[in-house]
Design brief:
Bound molecules: 2-phosphoglycolic acid
Helix content: 40-55%
Radius of gyration: 17 Å
Order of helices and strands: EHEHEHEHHEHHEHEHEH
Number of domains: 1
CATH architecture: Alpha-Beta Barrel
Shape: globular
Strand order of the largest sheet: 1-2-3-4-5-6-7-8
Distance between the termini: 9 Å
CATH superfamily: Aldolase class I
Strand content: 15-25%
Number of strands: 8
């Protein structure tokens, strides 16, 4: 890794996973991690909401943490189908993703909504992983850096610190497509985010910046070596421990 920050390799299972098979995958991941003398990175799995409690129980005391994939901005109330940050914490989660592009698109989540969710996460004692990323059209029209700056500044929770905040840069066009930006493009965006954070936060240099979008065993080492890349947010390749572990190994 290019920096001294402790890397974070996060798996986002999205809407995948049933009790029995998921438990087997998580056990296998925990087993691989436990075989190491020391694990030089943080490992996170974000299962669907139905599995947070059982996966957190399984992972308790292991090097693997559990997170939610989204939370509501309110603590409780009349919000049918939603899950609060406090509920995730109560179920054993330590992290929550907010503002994933699938949430921004499928559920019309604005930067303001993402910020409110991130603030709810911090209030509940969770680490918020705030996701940002440009669409293909935005990239092709040369707007990537301005779109990212706008998302970062408007989605960032008040009270964010290096301890409770992680930012994931995920180009929308790279998610689930097998396409990735060049390492130069990733370097540009990550340096840009770091620079933006310096104007917004006191301990900006300690905030981990993850890259996400078609990360797999075969490209992880190259991506994890880019300056200001402090880990990965992995979708498809996080579902099976045997695919996820080689990504973790690149930063061990
Ligand atoms: P992918 O998804 O690794 O399947 O591209 C990444 C994500 O959406 O977090």
């Amino acid at each position: 890794m290019s920096s001294s920050l402790r890397p974070l390799i996060a798996g986002n299972w999205k809407m995948n996973g049933l009790k029995r098979e998921s438990a087997e995958e998580l056990k296998s991941l925990i087993h691989k991690a436990s075989e190491q003398n020391s694990v030089g990175c943080d490992i996170l799995i974000c299962p669907p909401a139905t599995l947070v409690a059982s996966m957190a129980e399984l992972a308790n005391g292991s090097p693997v943490s559990i997170g939610g994939q989204d939370c509501h901005a309110n603590e409780k109330g009349a919000h049918t189908g939603d899950t609060s940050a406090q509920m995730l914490k109560d179920a054993g989660a330590d992290y929550v993703l907010v503002g994933h592009s699938e949430r921004r698109t499928d559920h019309d989540e604005s930067n303001e909504k993402v910020k409110a969710k991130a603030e709810a996460a911090l209030k509940a004692g969770l680490i918020a992983v705030v996701c940002v990323g440009e669409t293909l059209q935005e990239r092709e029209s040369g707007q990537t850096l301005s779109v990212i700056s706008d998302q970062v500044s408007r989605s960032l929770p008040a009270g964010g610190t290096a301890e409770n905040l992680v930012i994931a840069y995920e180009p929308v066009w790279a998610i689930g497509t097998g396409k990735t930006p060049t390492v130069e493009d990733v370097a540009d965006v990550h340096a840009h985010i770091r620079n933006d954070l310096q104007a917004l936060l006191k301990d900006a240099d300690g905030v981990r910046l993850l890259y996400g979008g078609s990360v797999k065993g075969s490209n992880a080492a190259e991506l994890m070596n880019v300056a200001h890349v402090n880990g990965a947010l992995v979708g498809g390749a996080s579902l099976k421990a045997e695919d996820f572990w080689p990504i973790v190994e690149t930063v061990l």
